[in-house]
Design a protein that fits this description.
Layout lengths: L5 E8 L7 H14 L5 E3 L17 H17 L6 E10 L2 E10 L2 E7 L11 H4 L9 E3 L2 E4 L9 H9 L4 E6 L7 H16 L3 E5 L1 E4 L2 E4 L3 E3 L7 E2 L6 E10 L2 E4 L10 H23 L5 E4 L4 H14 L4 E5 L7 H14 L2 E4 L3 H15 L6 H22 L2 E4 L3 H6 L12 E2 L6 H13 L15 H5 L19 H12 L5 H6 L4 H13 L1 H5 L30
Parallel strand pairs: 1-2, 2-3, 7-8, 8-9, 16-17, 16-19, 17-18, 19-20
Antiparallel strand pairs: 1-14, 3-4, 4-5, 6-7, 9-12, 10-11, 12-13, 14-15
Helix pairs in contact: 1-2, 6-7, 6-12, 7-8, 9-10, 14-16
Catalytic activity: deamido-NAD(+) + L-glutamine + ATP + H2O = L-glutamate + AMP + diphosphate + NAD(+) + H(+)
Keywords: ATP-binding, Ligase, NAD, Nucleotide-binding
GO molecular function: ATP binding; glutaminase activity; NAD+ synthase (glutamine-hydrolyzing) activity; NAD+ synthase activity
Length: about 550
C-alpha cells in the first residue's frame, strides 16, 4: 500500500537520433531541465540508442556508449529532482536486452527488460535482443509501477502478471510505427488491458521518421473506468505533464489535454500525407542533404511528390527539372510549369532529345534490323536518370523518386531510370490513393506544412489519363488494367496474402489475376534495387514483405 497519493508524470513524446547516444541523452537532460517540478519523466522505447537500431545494437562500442550515457543521465538525478524512465539497450552476461531503466537519486535504481519481442513485418527484434523474464513492478515514491514495453501491452499475460505482483499504474514506453488505421487499434488494445487489469495505463509513443518508418506520436492515458483524460497530438513532438491522484479505488489521471484526432476518409488521407511529409523531411535532414531534386513531368505522381517535398522542406529546398523528349506533350509542359508556380519552387528544363539521338546513333549498328520497342522507351527514362543524377552530384540535393506502389508492384518502372534516387515518398501508396491524396491536398493544407494554402497542382493533372509519354499517344491503360481494378487485386495479393482463386471468387477475371500475380513476382528483382520509401500500410515493399528473388511459386498453379 503506497503512502504517496499525488504523482506528476511527464510524457516526452519526442524524436530521436539512431546511434547517437550523446545527442539523445543531451535532449533528455534538456527536457528534464525545462520540466520544472515533476516526479517522473517517461521517455519512449530505446530512446537512448534510437529505434529501430537494427544490427547497430550488436556493436560493442554502441553498447558501451549507451552504458556511459545512461550513467551520466542517472548522475543528473542526484539533485533530487525528476526521476527518469529511459529506454536503452542493456547487456548482461553476454545477452542484449531491450530495457527500461529507472534513474533516480543519482543512480540506476531499477532495470526491466522487454518480454515479448516482435518478429513480424517491420520488426526483427529476436535477431538482436534476448527476451526478458516476466517483469516485476518497479517501486517509485512508494508507488508500484508496471512497465510493459511496447509489444508487451498487446497480450494479456504480462499485464495480468504485473497486476498480480502489485502494480498500481501501467506505464508503456513505445516505438510504434505508423500504419494507416493503426491508431484506433492501439487505443483499443490499451483499453482492453485496462479493463482486464483494472489498472490505469499511460501509453507513450515517439514521433519522427527513421528511414522507412515514421512514428506518429498520439500518446494517451486510459483511466480505470475506460475514460481517456489525456490525448496528445499526432505528428508533432510534445512534452506534457500528467497529474495523478489516488483514492480508495486506486490511481486516476486528472483531465488534461485533449487533442483532436481526424477520423474517417479525411483522417486517413491526412495521416498518409503527414507520414509522407515526416518520412521525407526527417530522412533529408538526418542524412545531411541540402534539399531534393526531382523530375517534374506534368503527371500526377511527380506533382504529388513535389507537393510533399515543398510541404516537408520548404520551396527553397525543392528543385524541379522538366526533361522533355519528342513525345512530351505541350499539355505536360504546361502542367509541370503550373505545378512549380503553385508550389513556388525552382523549375529548369533539360531536353533529352540530343542524348536520345546520340544513343540511337551509338546503338544503330547493333540494333540494325530490329524494330523499336520497350528498349528505346527505357533509354529515354534512363537518360533522364543520368541527367538528374548529374545535377545531384554537382549541386548536392538528393534525387527524389516519384514512382507509386502500383507501378513498383508490377514492374512498371525502369531500373536506372525513373527508379533512380535516394528516397521515394509514394513507394507504399497505390495509384488509386495517389489520386485521392492529391485531391485532398488541393483542398486541405496539412498541419506543419511549409507549402502554399490552396491548390498545389492543376485539376487537369489529376483528371487526365496517366501516361509515361515514352512513345506516341501512350497511356498507362495500354499496359495495365484500370487502376481501381489493378489496386484491388494487388491489395489482395500483397496485404491480404490471397491466392488467385481467392480473388477469382471475388469476381475478378482469372486471366487478369494470374497475369498480375506473375508481374508481381517477376518484378521482385527491381524492387530489391529500389530506394527506400515511407511505410504507409501493413505490407510495404522493403521492411514488411521479403520474398526470394528466384522462385517459381505461383498460387495459380496450386
Amino acid at each position: 500500500m503506497s503512502m504517496t497519493d499525488q504523482l506528476t508524470i511527464l510524457l516526452a513524446q519526442i524524436p530521436q537520433t539512431v546511434g547517437h547516444c550523446r545527442r539523445n541523452a543531451d535532449a533528455m537532460l534538456k527536457i528534464r531541465q525545462e520540466a520544472g517540478k515533476v516526479d517522473l519523466i517517461l521517455f519512449p522505447e530505446l530512446q537512448l540508442i534510437g529505434y529501430p537500431p537494427e544490427d547497430l545494437v550488436l556493436k560493442p562500442s554502441l553498447l558501451q556508449n549507451a552504458k556511459e550515457e545512461l550513467e551520466r543521465l542517472a548522475l543528473a538525478t542526484s539533485d533530487g529532482g525528476a526521476a527518469m524512465l529511459v529506454g536503452t539497450a542493456w547487456q548482461e552476461k553476454g545477452r542484449i536486452f531491450n530495457a527500461v531503466a529507472l534513474l533516480d537519486q543519482g543512480k540506476i535504481a531499477a532495470i526491466r527488460y522487454k518480454h515479448d519481442l516482435p518478429n513480424y513485418g517491420t520488426f526483427d527484434e529476436k535477431r538482436i535482443f534476448s527476451a526478458g523474464p516476466l517483469p516485476e513492478p518497479v517501486l517509485f515514491r512508494d508507488v508500484s509501477l508496471g512497465i510493459p514495453v511496447c509489444e508487451d501491452i498487446w497480450t494479456e499475460k504480462l499485464c495480468d502478471h504485473l497486476k498480480e505482483r502489485g502494480a498500481e499504474i501501467l506505464l508503456v514506453p513505445n516505438g510504434s510505427p505508423f500504419e494507416s488505421g493503426k491508431y484506433p487499434v492501439r487505443r483499443k488494445v490499451v483499453a482492453d488491458r485496462v479493463k482486464e487489469t483494472g489498472l490505469p495505463c499511460l501509453y507513450l509513443n515517439r514521433v519522427g521518421g527513421q528511414d522507412e518508418v515514421v512514428f506518429d506520436g498520439g500518446s494517451f492515458v486510459v483511466n480505470r473506468d475506460g475514460a481517456v483524460p489525456v490525448s496528445l497530438p499526432r505528428w508533432q513532438a510534445d512534452c506534457y505533464v500528467t497529474r495523478w491522484h489516488k483514492t480508495e479505488e486506486g490511481w486516476s489521471c486528472d483531465e488534461g489535454l485533449q487533442s483532436k484526432i481526424s477520423e474517417g476518409e479525411d483522417g486517413r488521407l491526412s495521416d498518409i500525407y503527414q507520414a509522407m511529409m515526416m518520412g521525407l523531411g526527417d530522412y533529408v535532414r538526418q542524412n545531411g542533404f541540402s534539399g531534393v531534386l526531382l523530375g517534374l513531368s506534368g503527371g500526377i505522381d511527380s506533382a504529388l511528390s513535389a507537393a510533399v517535398a515543398v510541404d516537408a522542406l520548404g520551396a527553397d529546398k525543392v528543385w524541379c527539372v522538366m526533361l522533355p523528349s519528342r513525345y512530351t506533350s505541350q499539355e505536360s509542359l504546361d502542367d509541370a510549369r503550373a505545378c512549380a508556380e503553385m508550389l513556388g519552387c525552382r523549375l529548369d528544363s533539360v531536353p533529352i532529345n540530343p542524348a536520345v539521338e546520340a544513343i540511337d546513333g551509338m546503338l544503330a549498328p547493333l540494333f540494325s534490323g530490329k524494330k523499336p520497342d520497350i528498349t528505346e522507351e527505357n533509354i529515354q527514362s534512363r537518360l533522364r536518370g543520368v541527367v538528374l543524377m548529374a545535377i545531384s552530384n554537382k549541386f548536392s540535393p538528393m534525387v527524389l523518386t516519384t514512382g507509386n506502389k502500383s507501378e513498383m508492384a508490377v514492374g512498371y518502372a525502369t531500373l536506372y531510370g525513373d527508379m533512380n534516387g535516394g528516397y521515394s515518398v509514394l513507394k507504399d501508396l497505390y495509384k488509386s490513393d495517389v489520386f485521392k491524396v492529391s485531391r485532398w491536398r488541393n483542398s486541405h493544407k496539412p498541419a506543419h506544412a511549409l507549402g502554399p494554402d490552396g491548390y498545389v497542382m492543376p485539376d487537369r493533372v489529376i483528371t487526365k489519363p496517366p501516361s509515361a509519354e515514352l512513345r506516341e499517344d501512350q497511356k498507362d491503360s495500354d499496359s495495365l488494367p484500370p487502376y481501381d481494378i489493378l489496386d484491388a487485386v494487388l491489395h489482395g495479393l500483397i496485404e491480404e496474402d490471397l491466392s488467385c482463386s481467392d480473388l477469382v471468387k471475388r469476381g475478378y477475371d482469372p486471366d487478369l489475376v494470374t497475369r498480375i500475380e506473375n508481374l508481381l513476382h517477376r518484378a521482385e528483382y527491381k524492387r530489391r534495387q529500389a530506394p527506400p520509401g515511407v511505410k504507409l500500410g501493413s505490407r510495404n515493399f522493403g521492411r514488411d514483405r521479403r520474398y526470394p528473388l528466384s522462385h517459381q511459386f505461383r498460387s495459380s498453379h496450386s
